[in-house]
């Protein structure tokens, strides 16, 4: 089983739609969780951290389910500019983060 | 605020040539530093990380090496590049706390001919 698994997509959604991504992780000892956004041919950028209580940042909501070992990202009122690959990131052993391979989102007119 | 600089942005090298990519961080002390590679359409592969000057941990066997000659400087090198070394190389830093996120440089797109 991969340490971090994501549906690669692509998720094609119309502008204004709500879309959700899930990510599962295998290390039950993981303590920290993040969502990054990566535009084509660019570096990953931190989108938000994921807290146990869930957190919201504008149109973006992140949730953590420790019992089932998954995290989710919900995007409301999708914009064209939200088109990107969304990377799920989990702390692993040592001083390392484990990155998922990403879920591609395409928001269309 | 902290910034990370990585250069060059793009590089085209012949097979068998040497490589040196440099990364520097400003605005923080004693950061953890990381080198990743991302092949086209693939995920991020951790190559090396460092928790301090002269301390390098290698994640995958390969013909690359890393060095940290100064606190905020991280260098990725190779004596002889292979075709399979092509990819997008990313440097990242984080504070020493494992539970904090990493922040990436702009990356170097390396093409081997």
Keywords:
A: 109 residues; mainly beta; 6-stranded mixed beta sheet; 5-stranded antiparallel beta sheet; B: mainly beta; 4-stranded antiparallel beta sheet
Notes on the structure:
The complex is a heterodimer of chains A (109) and B (113). Chain A has strands at residues 4-6, 11-14, 19-25, 33-38, 44-50, 55-57, 60-65, 70-75, 84-91, 97-99, 103-108. With 109 residues, chain A is an all-beta fold. In chain A, strand 4 (33-38) and strand 5 (44-50) form a beta hairpin. The termini of chain A are far apart. Chain B contains no helices and eleven strands. In chain B, a hairpin with a 5-residue loop joins strand 4 (32-38) and strand 5 (44-52). In chain B, 38% of the residues are buried. The A-B interface holds A 31-32, 34, 36, 41-46, 49, 87, 89, 91, 94-97, 99-102 and B 32, 34, 42-44, 46, 49, 51, 57, 59, 88, 90, 94, 96, 98-107, 109.
What is the secondary structure topology, with strand pairs?
The complex is a heterodimer of chains A (109) and B (113).
Chain A: E1 4-6, E2 11-14, E3 19-25, E4 33-38, E5 44-50, E6 55-57, E7 60-65, E8 70-75, E9 84-91, E10 97-99, E11 103-108
Parallel strand pairs in A: 2-11
Antiparallel strand pairs in A: 1-3, 3-8, 4-5, 4-9, 6-7, 7-8, 9-10, 9-11
Chain B: E1 3-7, E2 10-13, E3 19-26, E4 32-38, E5 44-52, E6 55-58, E7 64-70, E8 73-78, E9 87-94, E10 103-104, E11 108-112
Parallel strand pairs in B: 2-11
Antiparallel strand pairs in B: 1-3, 3-8, 4-5, 4-9, 5-6, 7-8, 9-10, 9-11
What pattern of helices and strands is seen along the backbone of chain A?
Answer: EEEEEEEEEEE
Total number of helices of chain B: 0
Described by the principal axes of the CA atoms, the overall outline of chain B is globular
Overall mean pLDDT of chain A stands at 93
User: What is the chains' assembly state?
Assistant: heterodimer
Beta content of chain B: over 45%
Rg of Cα set of chain A: 13 Å
The unreliable regions of chain B are none
Radius of gyration of chain B: 13 Å
In one word, what is the shape of chain A? globular
* Distance separating the two termini of chain A: 37 Å
